Amino acid sequence: MSDARDGSLLAQPLRPPSAGRAAALVGLFLLGALVGLAGALVQGGWFPGGLLLALAGAAGLFLGGAHATAGRGGAVAPAAGWIVAVVLLTTTRPEGDFLFGAGGGSYLFLLGGMALAVICATVGAGRQPRGGGARLGK
Q: How do residues 29-53 score in pLDDT, each as one tens digit?
C-alpha cells in the first residue's frame, strides 16, 4: 500500500469521459441555454421578482448539475450554455431589435448570472479520491 504523502493516491491519470458522462454534460449545456433564454424573458417582465426567479433558476441548475455529475464539470457545462445563450441574446439584430433593455435589471441579470456561475462552479461538488471514509493522512 502506498503512502498518501508521496502523492500516488491523489495523482491519477486523466481519462476521457465515458459516453454517458459526455451525454450528460451536453444535455446540461443545452439545459443551461434554455434556462438562460427563459431567464432573459422572465427577468424583465416582473421586476424585481422575475430577476430573482431567473437567477434562482440558474443557480439551481448550476448546483444541481454539479451534484448530479459529482464534479465541477456538471456546474461548468450549464453555466457555459447559459452564458452563450445570454450573450447571443444581447447582440443587436440588423433590424435594430434586441431582447435586453438598457435598464439596471438587465445588467444585474447578466453580471449576477455570471457571478453565480463562478460561485457554483467553485463551491460545487469536487471529485474526491475513492476509498474509505478515513482521513488520508492517517
A: 999 999 999 998 888 777 788 899 9
Say whether pLDDT at 138 is over 60. Answer: no
Grid coordinates of 97 = 431589435
CA dist 65 and 128 (Å) reads 17
H or E stretch at 22: helix 19-45
Let me know: does 99 contact 89? Beta carbons within 8 Å. yes
Tell me the domain boundaries of the chain.
17-123
pLDDT tens across 63-79, in order? 999 888 888 888 999 99
Pick the closest to residue 74 from 23, 133, 9, 5 (CA basis): 23
Amino acid at site 84: V
Evaluate whether 124 touches 75 at the Cβ level (below 8 Å).
yes
